[in-house]
Design brief:
4 helices; 0% strand; mainly alpha
Length: 116
């Protein structure tokens, strides 16, 4: 969505990007919460993620506003890209660990093949 706005900023493209983001968020966030509950049955992960999301919503726009110079939004775009890349870098080890854990559990459930 940010790439659409970055290509040629306009009210129409911003509206399309915002609607696309909200549409994706409405479907993705419940899925992520379900994954969080399966990873951490105590639900601390989900609680912390909601708190951090709220903090991000309040601090993010203020930080981005500091990086806007006149009508140049490139600093804000780079900040968003950097924060996204950092978040992804933090999330990837958990995804890999969970994938290995799930593959190990599914392999343990498969019956051994009988020798012919």
């Amino acid at each position: 969505c940010a790439l659409i706005v970055a290509m040629e900023p306009s009210v129409l493209l911003y509206g399309i990007a915002a609607c696309g983001f909200i549409f994706a968020w409405d479907f993705l966030y419940p899925y992520l919460m379900g994954v969080g509950i399966s990873l951490d049955p105590s639900a601390k992960l989900v609680s912390y993620s909601l708190a951090l999301q709220t903090i991000g919503k309040s601090i993010g726009p203020s930080l981005a506003a500091l990086l806007v110079v006149g009508s140049d939004f490139s600093g804000a775009y780079w900040m968003c890209f950097g924060l996204f890349a950092g978040s992804l870098a933090c999330l990837l080890p958990a995804i890999v660990h969970t994938d290995k854990k799930l593959r190990g559990a599914s392999a343990a459930k498969k019956p051994a093949m009988a020798a012919s």
